[in-house]
Design a protein that fits this description.
Elements lengths: L1 H18 L11 E5 L6 H9 L6 E6 L3 H9 L6 E6 L4 H5 L4 E4 L15 H18 L4 E4 L4 H15 L7 E3 L2 H15 L10 E3 L6 E3 L12 H12 L1 H8 L8 H18 L5 E8 L7 E9 L2 E5 L7 H26 L1
Parallel strand pairs: 1-2, 1-4, 2-3, 4-5, 5-6
Antiparallel strand pairs: 7-8, 9-10, 10-11
Length: 341
């Protein structure tokens, strides 16, 4: 039964790819590398990317455990070739020729732990991995999942600047999980089909820095100000909700893997020339006075084609925007300082 379900999912995925004009036999050759593939996010993300018909080569890397994950995923009957790498000495081979690099590597959150508590460990991991990216695949689109994203993306930018390879159009902080949560929570409250929901989420990727723009949500719904505030709070605290529900045994791994796969798919579509691919992401930006900011981004063959403006905000959202800026500014500066230390 389980095998039948996977075959059905793979068949549906391939069919969807053909409907988009990317049948497996004619799609461009695209290599995706996942750094941290044996972890709690990395394993389900590896599965989801194996199901993506736009991927022809999937390189799975981690410090240990990758051969088993690679062998397991390689048995799935979809287009991509699976390549497994373990240990620092194989990192270069994992990265060579990559079009998209996804970084879920790092330690997970535990009960009572904020994203900022993760900083010292995950910041060092991201700094090391980005140093290798700059050397082996400097033109890849880099999708940073490792928390705290508000700091790890600035760290990555400084590493690439030092190496002389920085391209602001090719570095992304993956904030898609905030969008996924906002869509799900909004659909439940508004009693609409979640598949039809669009909710932009701007700012950053931690607590109060996450600002869902429910005033711009579609389909529109006549929700009270109390309901909007509750939805905003739940979206901001979504990660904590999962950490507490897992009672110290994990964090948001499955939903984060799904969100990471959604954003990576958008990057691949952009690289392949699909028009009008828009997702929210934490990128270098002039939308506000902060150097990095999450907002809607149009993706294309060079990565970021356009960073879109915020649009009309409600008074509540304007207040939220001003409230998030000091914390986001501090997190960005903390990352830059770490990169230069």
């Amino acid at each position: 039964m389980r095998t039948s379900m996977l075959r059905t999912l793979a068949r549906r995925t391939s069919t969807a790819g053909r409907r988009r004009g990317f049948a497996s036999e004619s799609a461009p050759d695209r290599k995706v590398a996942i750094l941290g593939a044996a972890g709690g996010i990395g394993q389900p993300l590896s599965l989801l990317m194996k199901l993506n018909p736009l991927v022809s080569r999937l390189a799975l890397y981690d410090i240990a455990g990758t051969p088993g994950v690679a062998a397991d995923v390689s048995h799935i009957n979809t287009r991509s070739e699976i390549l497994g790498y373990a240990g620092e000495e194989q990192l270069g081979k994992a990265l060579e020729g990559a079009d998209v690099v996804i970084i879920p590597a790092g330690v997970p959150r535990k009960p009572g732990m904020t994203r900022d508590d993760l900083f010292n460990i995950n910041a060092g991991i991201v700094k090391s991995l980005c140093t290798a990216i700059a050397k082996y695949c400097p033109h890849a689109l880099v999708n940073v999942i490792s928390n705290p994203v508000n700091s790890t993306v600035p760290i990555a930018s400084e590493v690439f600047k030092k190496a002389g390879t920085y391209d602001e159009k090719r570095l992304f902080g993956v904030t898609t999980l905030d969008v996924v949560r906002a869509k799900t929570f909004y659909a439940g409250k508004a009693k609409v089909n979640v598949a039809d929901v669009i909710v932009p989420v701007v700012g950053g990727h931690a607590g109060v820095t996450i600002l869902p723009l429910f005033s711009q949500a579609t389909p529109s719904a006549n929700l009270s100000s109390e309901e909007i505030e509750a939805l905003t709070k739940r979206t901001q605290d979504g990660g904590t909700e999962v950490v507490e529900a897992k009672a110290g045994k994990g964090s948001a791994t499955l939903s984060m893997a799904y969100a990471g796969a959604i954003f990576a798919d958008a990057c691949l579509k952009g690289l392949n020339g699909v028009p009008d691919v828009v997702e929210c992401s934490f990128v270098q930006s002039t939308v506000t006075d902060l150097p990095f900011f999450a907002s809607k981004v149009r993706l294309g063959k060079n990565g970021v084609e356009e960073v879109l403006g915020l649009g009309a905000l409600s008074d509540y959202e304007k207040e939220g925007l001003e409230a998030l800026k000091p914390e986001l500014k501090s997190s960005i500066e903390k990352g830059i300082k770490f990169a230069h230390a």
